[in-house]
Amino acid sequence: MIPIEYWLILSSLLLVVGIYGVMTRKNAIVVLMSIEIMLNAANINLVAFSSYYSSLHPALGTDATGQAFALFSIAIAAAEVAVGLAILLSVYRRYQTIDVDKINILRW
Amino acid sequence: MDVLQYAWLIPVFPFIAFILIALIPKRTLGWEDGWGYAIAGAGGALVLSFLVIWEVLNGHTLTEDAPRTTWLIIGDYQVTFGIWIDQLAALMLLVVSIVGTLVVVYSGGYMHEEGETRRRYYAEIMLFISVMYGLVIADNYLQMFIFWELVGLCSYLLIGFWYQKPSAASAAKRAFIVTRVGDIMFMAGIILLFKYVGNLDFAVLFDINSGAPGAPTVPSDILILSTALIFGGAIGKSAQFPLHEWLPDAMEGPTTVSALIHAATMVKAGVYLTARTYPLLVQTPESLLFVAVIGGVTALIAASCALAANDIKRVLAYSTISQLGYMILGLGAGGYLVYHLQDPNGYTAATFHMMNHAFFKALLFLCAGSVIHAVGTNDMRLMGGLRKHMKITSTTMLIGALAIAGVPPLSGFWSKDEVLAAVYHAGDLDPTFLLLWVLGIVTAFMTAFYMFRMWFMTFAGEARSTYHAHESPKIMTIPLIILAGLAITSGFALLAGDGFKAFMEVPIEEHVIAGHESTIDIAVEIFTDPLTYVSLVLAIVGILLAYRMYYMPGFDRSVFGRGTAGTLQRALENRWYISRFYDDFAYKVWYGFSLVCDAFDRRVIDGAVNGFSYLGANTGGVIRKAQSGNVQRYASLIIVGIVILLALLLFVVPWGGW
Q: Is B631 close to A100, i.e. CB distance below 8 A?
């Protein structure tokens, strides 16, 4: 079995990659993809801790709460991406761009 | 059917006329832009008033058990509207209904050339008469105060009727503001009573300190203060010294309005209030002395100002103030007599004078209006010789002048004599009244002089300017003739039937005092009293002096331009400088104080408020820059924030967990 630390390092790396993407990329679709990466880092954590918890308490049998949570999260993320892309589409129709630096009308 | 129960309908008639004249379409206004409706409103009130007066003459009154309607409920206290018909109210109803109706009739001729503004005129006149009726029949001080203020409002509107003239506009404002000083005293007085009694109904207040079961008690110093304050309202409304200067200025309105204000409505309200407050006043001799002194001083000062006035209406205005001073003096002295001797003569004399004055003063004003209508100016120096052109006006005005001068058997003689006799008798109780009696006698002399000065300057001699005088139309002369008849005969009310004194009961709860002398005794008493002849001789001397100075040729009037006489003449022409003093006071002292208040308001109070708003606005202006609209910056800030929170949890907060 792969130790929990490896999973945590993986998820941290994914999170940092996602943050980097969100903060630096101009293309809104790439930003959205980066958010998905950050979300999946969290999903990995859920599954990893769930499995780790089961290994600590073998008497309780296999606990699947974390996995179920991750599945929920993935489903919701799919819906969220659909909404996000729809917003981006209508933004593009209106402004002919999806550069996040240019889309700043919601301000003072 | 008991007519008294329906007395509340009296003000309703003119009020309906007011609504109709003000609101109906122009082509349905009929005669003279609403004159017909005004006649109908005033006439309806006149008829109902006479029915009510007839009931009162037959000995019925409606006071404490009159119908009431609840207006407001505040806690345990109910603010009610009701009616209070006693002899005093009936007397006022008589005055207001007769004078009001005749003035409205007369207006049909006098205001004929005013065109469309007559609609406003008739609407305001109707409202004026209506609220005056409301004031007269009020059964509590709050109701009275409401109508009191409405009377003030209406006189403001009517004095400023020709508001395009700056002088009329400022006279209206002056009348409103100066009487407001009195109104505030009146309000303070009734608030004081309310604080101690918890009620403003006459039925409750007039029982104060009577000792009857359930009667409220008020400490005597509080009662003195409150009666003096209520009388302060009368000082403002009845133009008593030192608040008398608004009334001569109020001559800027149409003459009909002046007649109404002086004879029936506005200034009589103050006298009426003082008489109405009698059950309280007679418990406070200190206030009564104050009342009498104000009245006596006013009578003299106003009469002296009338000596030198050249505007025919101003002469009459000062004469009104002076006669009002007589009434107030009579009420003060009469209260003293009631307090010490249970003698009602002063009260009856003052109310009697109020009635007689209403008739002859309305007559004089309407005559003056007729003259002004014919000549087109108020200045008596430009008149003269009008007797030949205006026979009816000159004769009726002569009757009015004889009546006010106190020549028997015209009305002014009886009541003025009664007032002076009452003041003289009060002199036995307090020597101050003897001094006031001297003032009254001197005033009587001056009155005779200035009235005949006015009459001679206007009607006698030769014309001093070119005018095309003509007698006024019948619609104006008939009211004059009716009023002249009343000015001659109303004095006989003292002797007719049981006599005025028996009718006019002093409204004091535990022992209603009425005169018990027979009318023959009264007549004998008047004509055997040497004081009667003193005032009569002074009046005749005044008339003869005026005849010598203003009718007979050869009198050198230039002595009034020189030396002591000249100084006095200038002082009188400048109204003893009282008006100028008020102006200076207002311009210098009060305006300076206002500037300080203004600066304080602008700099300190507004400054603080504005400072806070600038602070808020500027802070917001800085902070809103954070809302850049750049989502990546938001994300960065969120992440930085999370890192800081985590760092705090890990390294700083002691219960951080790890």
A: yes
Residue B453 carries which side chain, given as an amino acid letter?
A: R
Which tokens in the block code for residue B587?
Answer: 């311009």
Q: Which of B3-12, B560-569, B621-630 has the lowest mean pLDDT?
A: B560-569
pLDDT tens for B218-238 read 788 888 888 888 888 888 888
Residue B20 distance to chain A (closest CA, Å): 58
3-state secondary structure at position A81:
helix
Residue from A30, A39, A108 whose CB has the most chain B CBs within 10 Å, to mutate: A108
- CB count within 10 Å of CB B595 equals 10
Q: Structure tokens of A49? A: 């801790």
A105 vs B629: CB contact, 8 Å cut-off? Answer: yes
Interface size between A and B, measured as CB pairs under 8 A: 31
Q: Is the pLDDT of residue B513 over 70?
A: no
- B620 touching A, CB under 8 A? no
Do residue B632 and residue A105 have CB atoms under 8 angstroms apart?
no
Which of A35, A100, A103, A105 is the best residue to mutate to test the B interface, defined by the most B CB atoms within 10 Å of its own CB?
A100
What is the longest distance spanned by two Cα atoms in chain B?
Answer: 125
Quote the ipTM score: 0.82
B624 contact residues in A (CB cutoff 8 A): 108
For residues B269 and B302, the answer to whether their CB atoms sit within 8 Å is: no
Q: Which of B629, B630, B635 sits opposite A22 (nearest CB)?
A: B635
Asked if B635 reaches chain A (Cβ–Cβ under 8 Å), the answer is yes
Decide if B635 and A108 are in contact by the 8 Å CB cutoff: no
Is B325 within 8 Å of B243 (Cβ atoms)? Answer: no
Q: Indicate the length of chain B as a whole number.
A: 658
CB B459 within 8 A of CB B400: no
> CA-CA distances (angstroms) from residue B96 to B23, B289, B357?
25, 29, 12
Whole-angstrom distance, CA of residue B37 vs CA of residue B641 = 82
Out of A22, A24, A104, whose CB is closest to B630?
A104
Whole-angstrom distance, CA of residue B541 vs CA of residue B448: 8
pLDDT band (50, 70, 90) for residue B562? low
User: Phi, psi (5° rounding) for residue B375?
Assistant: -90, -35
Assess whether pLDDT exceeds 90 at residue B615: yes
Are B419 and B408 contacting, i.e. CB atoms less than 8 angstroms apart? no
CA distance B549 to A57: 133
From the list B539, B515, B536, the residue with the least C-alpha distance to B526 is B536
Transcribe B603-621 into DSSP letters: IIIHHHHHHHHHHHHHHHH
B631: nearest CA in chain A? A100
Q: Mention every residue, 6+ apart, whose C-beta is less than 8 A from residue A93.
A: none
B293: nearest Cα among B353, B252, B335:
B335
- Domains of chain A: residue spans and CATH: 4-95 (1.10.287.3510)
Cβ atoms of B524 and B376 within 8 Å: the answer is no
Asked if B325 contacts B302 with a C-beta cutoff of 8 angstroms, the reply is: yes
For chain A, how big is the Rg over CA atoms in Å? 18
Tokens read off for B227: 């009666």
Residues whose CB is less than 8 angstroms from the CB of residue A11 and which lie 6 or more positions away in sequence, other chains included: A41, A42, A44, A45, A48
State the DSSP code for B556.
Answer: -
Identify the residue whose tokens are 């006479």.
B50
Q: What letter would DSSP give residue B576?
A: G
**Which residue type, as a one-letter code, is found at position B610?**
N
